[in-house]
Every structure is written in structure tokens, then in C-alpha cells.
């Protein structure tokens, strides 16, 4: 969770994609090429957002073991953070915004067979 937040704070879109579970709708339902192949625009979307928004002050407020066993274990992480829109044309910096989210992470295996936790989805406004 903390490394993903740091990736947003630093505009590292590829890291966000790398740490997103394949079951995440943004990866599964990305844009389609002319041939019908699904391609995610998540990395570019994150990078574009990070040019306009400054993320800071992460606070983990809940950390709960979720359901599942083996390679499909889940974990819930509730967190709060602050941000400011900084790249809006005509404005120096907009007022601080406070956000909260309850995120689901699920285990999967990397290319070397190691277990890794990846972001599946989140509920905005909830912790």
C-alpha cells in the first residue's frame, strides 16, 4: 500500500500497473485496439493525474486480514490521504482535499513463483 501511494506521489505509472492485480477492472476492461485486444491505459492515466495532483500525508487507519486461502488470500487496508490540484491552468494551487479509501489486496505469483500482494479494487470514502 505504501509503495503504491509513493508511486502516485512520484508519478510512477508503470509501478502502479505492476502492483495492480489482473482482476482489477481497469486492467481487464481497458481500451481496445482495432483488432479487439484489450490494452490498459492505467500507466498513462496515473502519470497524467500526477502532473496535476500532489498526493501527501498518507495515514493507514485499518489493516484487516480478509478472506481466502493459498494463492487467493485477501487483505483490506483502510487509509486516508490529502492532495492538492497543482497543475490546473490559471491556478497556482487549489485547496487541500481529504480522501479516504478501503482497498482490497490479493496474493498472486510473480514470474519467479514468488507470492506478491497486488491491488484489486477500492471503495472511495470508506475506511
UniProtKB/TrEMBL annotation:
SUPFAM superfamilies: NTF2-like (SSF54427). Residues 1-122 form the YchJ-like middle NTF2-like domain. Gene3D superfamilies: 3.10.450.50. InterPro entries: NTF2-like_dom_sf, YchJ-like_M. Transmembrane segments: none annotated. This is YchJ-like middle NTF2-like domain-containing protein. It comes from Ostreococcus lucimarinus (strain CCE9901). The lineage of its organism: Eukaryota, Viridiplantae, Chlorophyta, Mamiellophyceae, Mamiellales.
Amino acid at each position: 500500500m505504501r509503495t503504491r501511494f509513493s508511486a502516485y506521489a512520484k508519478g510512477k505509472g508503470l509501478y502502479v500497473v505492476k502492483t495492480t492485480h489482473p482482476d482489477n477492472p481497469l486492467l481487464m476492461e481497458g481500451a481496445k485496439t482495432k483488432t479487439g485486444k484489450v490494452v490498459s491505459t492505467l500507466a498513462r492515466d496515473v502519470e497524467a493525474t500526477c502532473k496535476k495532483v500532489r498526493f501527501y500525508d498518507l495515514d493507514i487507519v485499518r489493516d484487516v486480514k480478509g478472506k481466502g486461502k493459498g494463492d487467493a488470500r485477501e487483505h483490506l487496508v483502510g487509509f486516508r490521504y490529502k492532495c492538492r490540484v497543482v497543475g490546473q491552468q490559471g491556478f497556482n494551487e487549489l485547496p487541500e482535499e481529504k480522501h479516504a479509501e478501503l482497498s482490497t489486496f490479493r496474493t498472486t505469483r510473480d514470474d519467479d513463483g514468488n507470492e506478491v500482494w497486488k491491488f484489486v479494487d477500492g471503495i472511495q470514502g470508506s475506511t
